[in-house]
Task: inverse folding
């Protein structure tokens, strides 16, 4: 999910395993997210 303002997810955040939010990611933000190696928090 990308954006520059708060979103109302209408409870959907309780139905997914994870959320990735890029706050105002810029022109290459979606590419950076797609190529990132996500490491879970311990």
Result:
């Amino acid at each position: 999910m990308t954006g520059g303002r708060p979103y109302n997810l209408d409870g959907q955040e309780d139905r997914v395993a994870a959320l990735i939010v890029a706050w105002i990611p810029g022109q290459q933000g979606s590419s950076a997210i797609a190529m990132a190696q996500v490491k879970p928090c311990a």
Q: What stands out?
A: The first helix runs from residue 29 to 35.
